[in-house]
Amino acid sequence: MTAVSTPVTITGLPEPARRAKRRGAALGLLAWFVGIVFVLPVLWMLLTSFHSEADAATNPPSLTASLTLDGYKEFFGSGGGASPWPSLLNSMGTSLFSTGFVLLLALPAAYALSIRRVRKWTDVMFFFLSTKMLPVVAGLLPVFLFAKDISFLDNVWLLVILYTSMNLPIAVWMMQSFLADVPVSIIEAAQMDGARLPTILWRVVAPIAGPGIAATSLICFIFSWNEMLFAQVLTGVVAQTAPAFLTTFVTSQGLFLAKVCAASIVISLPVLAAGFAAQDKLVQGLSLGAVK
Amino acid sequence: MSNPTTAVPVSGQRPPTAAPASVGRPMATRNRAREWATRAPLLPALIFLIVVTQLPFVATLVISLFDWNSFRPDRRAFAGLDNYKTVLSDASLRESILTTVLLTASVVIVSVVLGLLLALLLDRKFRGRGLVRTMLIAPFLLVPVASALLWKHALYNPEYGLFNGVLNWLGGPQPEWLTDTPLIAVEASLIWQWTPFMMLILLAGLQSRPLDMIEAARLDGAGNWQIFRFLTLPHLRRYLELGTLLGSIYIVQNFDAVFTMTRGGLNTANLPYTIYETFYNAHEYGLASAAGVVVVIGTIIIATFALRVVSSLFREEVSHA
């Protein structure tokens, strides 16, 4: 962005500009190099997932081995083990529902923290973030005991509640900054016209803060989909999520590298797809409230 | 507790519709009603968070004062601070506190620095920038358990992992990564995972820089380094703090990598993993809770420390903040 800001004369570049251009090209190459280094493990996993087990476990690694879908077939047929579908559906359900609940709770809260500022709103913001400083392990045991008492263990709704609480603080922080972008004058005008809070949120605030809200949802979805500690401790067979399934899948059947890679790719796919598709929003969303 | 939440939205919706009628109302009542109206949308989220996160922590505090093993429920007794004494004197627990600090600090520092360098690289225009960014964020989007499995089996495995495969090609040594340098191996995978996150935050920071100021500085003859040092870095300060804070919060709690890659063996057990073991396998509820409280205190110290260090580093540049 900054590199092009100097106006360029048409008749041949002066020496410093030419040097800058060469340096720019070198830095571009460096960026490419680092990008490849970072993506290489993922590509390696992708390649391995299309190998047969015999080709996957060779040293030195073979790049020319023939490709096969056996790893994926094994994973979905699960080679005698449990089917991955229930856990994938559990993950999808818990992630979508908890993201929905987060939006439902965070949007009004962020409204009160940005548009209709409550007094001491910074203190409230800090309280929200401080709940994130409370590591989940520190509250896990009572949750476990309580859920056991009321026979709520191994229930997807328990995860939905916990994931909602896990993502709510971050969502409030992010949305606070996005809603602060909405000009108060528009909201006041809507209020003059007799619009009520839900209408204002839906018709005035949501369209302007929409991209930010989408980014927030995406991040909540990613964190819910990825979560493992709760899933590991609080679910069993019925409510098991994909990450927890992935771990049992390795330990119970020994190691089948191609199959593990295929499973990892499948389980990461929803997040990879959503994240790649919404990169710009992700960048914008991750800046949280720091800008304002 | 549900009383204010149910009562308030009604008053919150009243002002617009009843606006003409309320003109003659006494100021105090109107102010109070307005204050509740502004507070109301906040309450569901606040109450939900307090119930789901703070109450369990209070319960953890209480349990931490008891000698309680679920195998011997009849011998549950008040133990005062004994569990804390055990946590702080038990060599393996102390070790896991140290491991947590080492793991968190190294991963956060390295990934913030790398993330900054990458963000600076990606802030320039070059061919294929979008593609490079896509490649860079892949590690952040991979499910952490999947990424831990990838590192453990497909990369680190001494028999057929990629690293030793490449070393084999080159005729180099064949180290056992996860047994020779277990903590560094875990840290490397986490740095790989977290650098893109830091890069994204810092890139957002770079792209929100006021370009006219940089332009002006350049016209005044400022060099790249001066612009970075006196304009870019101060502007990035909040983004750096944010990355450090969020990184600390999440990495202190890391469970997936330790659980998957080493099962806490070879001095890689951090506190979350140790607590998981203590409560899930050893059923020592009181002890696990005390360790949990120690993590909370540790997290707060680390988060505060991280903020302080970053803040003081940049204090000179920020004249008016």
Largest interface, and how many residues on either side?
Answer: A-B, 106 and 112 residues
The Rg value of chain A, from CA coordinates, equals 25 Å
Please give the share of residues in helix of chain A. Answer: over 70%
Class derived from helix and strand content of chain B: mainly alpha
Instruction: Provide the helix percentage of chain B.
Output: over 70%
**Could you state the order of secondary-structure elements of chain B as H and E?**
HHHEEHHHHHHHHHHHH
Strand content of chain A: under 5%
Shape type of chain B: flat
Biggest sheet descriptor of chain A:
none
Mean pLDDT reading of chain B: 79
Rg of chain B, alpha carbons: 26 Å
Query: Which strand-content bin applies to the residues of chain B?
Result: under 5%
Shape of chain A: flat
Strand order of the largest sheet of chain B: 1-2
**SS summary, helix count of chain B:** 15
Number of H- or I-type helical stretches of chain A:
13
Which regions of chain A contain 5 or more consecutive residues with pLDDT less than 50? none
Subcellular location (chain B): Cell membrane
Domain ABC transmembrane type-1 (chain B): 97-306
Membrane topology (chain B): Multi-pass membrane protein
Pfam families (chain B): BPD_transp_1
Structure description:
The complex is a heterodimer of chains A (292) and B (321). Chain A has 292 residues and is an all-alpha fold. Chain A is 71% helix and 0% strand. In chain A, helix 8 packs across helix 9. Chain A starts with 14 loop residues before the first helix and ends in a 6-residue tail after the last helix. The model of chain A has no long low-confidence stretch (mean pLDDT 81). By secondary structure, chain B is mainly alpha-helical. Chain B is built from 15 helices and 2 strands. In chain B, strands 1-2 form a two-stranded antiparallel sheet. The N terminus and C terminus of chain B are likely disordered. Classes of the chains: A mainly alpha (292), B mainly alpha (321). Chains A and B meet through helix 1, helix 4, helix 5, helix 6 and helix 7 of A and helix 1, helix 2, helix 3, helix 5 and helix 6 of B. Chain B: It is a multi-pass membrane protein. Chain B: This is Sugar ABC transporter permease. Chain B: Keywords: Cell membrane, Membrane, Transmembrane, Transmembrane helix, Transport. Chain B: Its main location: membrane.
